Amino acid sequence: MEKGNYRYPVKFNGIQDMLEFTHSASKCPGEVMLVNGHHRLSAKSFLSVMIAALSWDSVTVEADFDCYFEFEAFIAQ
């Protein structure tokens, strides 16, 4: 399986969402990244999550494992 095989678009509705997302990501094993094109930031860093949420048009969470249920509340439908 290739690295970063699981990707889901995410959306945040305020600071509390960003804090909860970061907390969930920090409990996950391995690398969890926020991606937009060629830009990649750690999903385990609140500052990175805030930068991505406020600066990027779209944010995708990318992980080496299926993280759907960890981030289900934030996955954009």
Write structural notes for this entry.
The protein is an alpha+beta fold and 77 residues long. The chain has a single domain, classed as HPr-like (Histidine-containing Protein, Chain: A, 2-Layer Sandwich). It has two helices and four strands, in the order E-H-E-E-H-E. A four-stranded antiparallel β-sheet has the order 1-4-2-3, covered by helices on one side. Helix 1 (15-26) packs across helix 2. The mean pLDDT is 92.
Set down the secondary structure blueprint.
Layout: E1 6-10, H1 15-26, E2 32-36, E3 39-42, H2 46-55, E4 59-63
Antiparallel strand pairs: 1-4, 2-3, 2-4
Primary descriptors:
2 helices; 4-stranded antiparallel beta sheet; single chain; 77 residues; Histidine-containing Protein, Chain: A; 4 strands
Uncertain runs are none
CATH architectural name: 2-Layer Sandwich
Which quaternary structure do these chains form?
A: single chain
What top-tier CATH class fits best?
Alpha Beta
Rg (CA only): 11 Å
For CATH, the homologous superfamily is named as: HPr-like
Q: Structural class per helix/strand content?
A: alpha+beta
Distance between the termini: 26 Å
> How many domains, in number, for the residues?
1
* Percent in strands: 15-25%
Say how many strands there are.
Answer: 4
Report a brief summary of the structure.
The protein is of the alpha+beta class and 77 residues long. The chain has helices at 15-26, 46-55, and strands at residues 6-10, 32-36, 39-42, 59-63. The relative contact order is 0.32.
